[in-house]
Amino acid sequence: MPLLKGAVTYARFAATSHKEPVKDPRRSLANALRKAAFEPLDQTGEQDRAAGWVELEDHDATELAPSRFLYGSYLLATWRVDSIRVPAALVRSEIDAWARQFEERAGHPPKRSDKAEQKELVLKKLRRRAFVTTQTFDVSWNQDTNAVQIWAASKKIVEEIQIAIEEAFDVSLQPTSPGARVEASEIDPESVRPTPALFGEDVALEVK
């Protein structure tokens, strides 16, 4: 949770709205967050991943009242991702044990369709015993300057949160890192590459 503790790694964006100003922006922001609020995984179901918004200071809270995510001019919220992963080796071990018992009873190995059906049953059984892994990624959005920071190192997660923000709030997010600015401009990338002096190459030549 980098906004309160942990490593400081984030992606920077500028938000551009595509809708007219609303009479009650606090309620509008709350409604947008709640549309994609986090919903816990059902370990008896088929989904193995769930993602959505929770409160910054309570990752189990999804009420998302304005008083819980607005801090001065900042919107501060957390994107929570829960995952269930059943080890493939454990599934294979269960299927192999079942197949041996099947062959002993029936006198022949199970058909492929029988194995597929049994695999589904094994997965459902193991899901109930599997631990849910939770990851959280904080987001800060200055409502005055429209500067957005997504506190995550994974490009895949950053893109997922970017899409979630754009869809929920009807905005476009443009990267504002130095590299992104160069790409968006007419500046020749070669002109902003590090010089040999930056790495001490000129010093190395003098020593030689």
Topology at a glance:
Layout: E1 11-17, H1 25-35, E2 49-55, H2 66-69, E3 70-71, E4 74-84, H3 88-106, H4 112-129, E5 132-142, E6 147-151, H5 155-169, E7 171-175, H6 178-184, H7 201-207
Antiparallel strand pairs: 1-6, 1-7, 2-4, 3-4, 4-5, 5-6
Helix pairs in contact: 3-4
Provide structural commentary:
This protein has 208 residues and is α+β, with helices and mostly antiparallel strands. 39% of the residues lie in helices and 23% in strands. The longest helix is centred in the middle third of the chain and has 19 residues, at 88-106. The radius of gyration is 25 Å and the shape is elongated.
Tag the structure with descriptive keywords.
208 residues; 2 domains; elongated; 7 helices; seven-stranded antiparallel beta sheet; alpha+beta; 7 strands
Distance between the termini: 48 Å
Chain-averaged pLDDT = 84
The number of distinct β-strands equals 7
Taking the sheet with the most strands, its summary is: 7 strands, antiparallel
Q: Name the helicity range.
A: 25-40%
Quick overview of this protein structure:
With 208 residues, the chain is of the alpha+beta class. It is 39% helix and 23% strand.
